[in-house]
């Protein structure tokens, strides 16, 4: 069994026991914490789903995100996983994640093996409940960006995602117009914050130990790759 297959098998097991909200809140902006304190989850949140897709490329374990176009929407210009809201023709939320990944990035659903999901994440401002599905493909997808929904496809090595220097704090313009200092991930010139950062926070807690063991990577090695 190669490293990629071994990581996949171990991740299936890890996804059965999740760190949950505690891990997500490590990357929550102060504004999100204030919102969660002020309001309880509404009775009928809107459902949505995203796909967290791993794949091998040039002997590296990769992960893909996307940057949304600059427009008048709430998530204008933000980095996210492919995904969107549950539609009436979707049989399950897993179907939602796969459909959206195909529509936005050309990822073929039949090529994706779903291993499990992370903890659901409630987003107070939009009253959305996000379900994150973890999937694998055995080779790098032939990405096709839907220009109406995707400004840029962002492929990153898991090495980089887990590097401690990737975590930082930045001033971000909040939807209220104010500058807010938020915890975020900074990858190849892209700032990842908010709900996506909270999802990544739980993801990294789930995968970090086994990834370092299987790929024999430590923080010294990661620092060297960044330099």
CATH class term: Alpha Beta
- First-to-last CA distance: 31 Å
The averaged pLDDT comes out at 89
By DSSP, the count of extended strands is 11
General form:
globular
Order of helical and strand elements: HHHEEEEHEEEEHEEEHH
CATH superfamily: Nucleoside Triphosphate Pyrophosphohydrolase
- Second rung of CATH, namely the architecture: Alpha-Beta Complex
The main pleated sheet reads as: 8 strands, mixed
Strand content: 25-35%
Helix content: 25-40%
**CATH topology, what is it called?**
Nucleoside Triphosphate Pyrophosphohydrolase
List the total number of helices. 7
Domain module count: 1
Low-confidence stretches: 219-227
Give an account of the 3D structure.
This protein has one domain (3-221): Nucleoside Triphosphate Pyrophosphohydrolase, CATH 3.90.79. 32% of the residues lie in helices and 30% in strands. It has 7 helices and 11 strands. The strands form 2 sheets. Strands 1, 2, 3, 4, 5, 6, 7 and 8 form an 8-stranded mixed β-sheet that branches. A 3-stranded antiparallel β-sheet has the order 9-10-11. A hairpin with a 4-residue loop joins strand 6 and strand 7 (128-136). The longest helix is centred in the last third of the chain and has 22 residues, at 194-215. The radius of gyration is 17 Å and the shape is globular.
